[in-house]
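Annotated sample (chain length 106).
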Amino acid sequence: GLAGRCDVVGGVYEGQLSITDHKTSRSLKKESDILHYFQQATAYSLMKYHMTGLLIPQIVIIMIPDGSGPAIVFKKQAKDYIAGLKVKIRRFNEDVHSPRCSVLPN
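Output written by the structure step:
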């Protein structure tokens, strides 16, 4: 799912406007394990664009395994995660509006 708060919206990381999110982890994670983090940061980027017209192309995930250094930095482009985010949103909407979902009132 997608939930949480972003640490920095529109800050500059290594010279580029970025969405930056700091994460802690009990173990070292590979890039393939954190696709949802990239999608979450992409959602923040798209929401910022929708609300203000400001495009923030870069997403940065800074992860600290076990709460102690050294930090691992993943820099990505939000545009690369839009398609996957759309699939996730579509699935959510299908689930919420299905007869078996008890979230919405009848």
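Annotation: The mean pLDDT is 85.
Annotation: Residues 12 and 18 are 6 Å apart (CA to CA).
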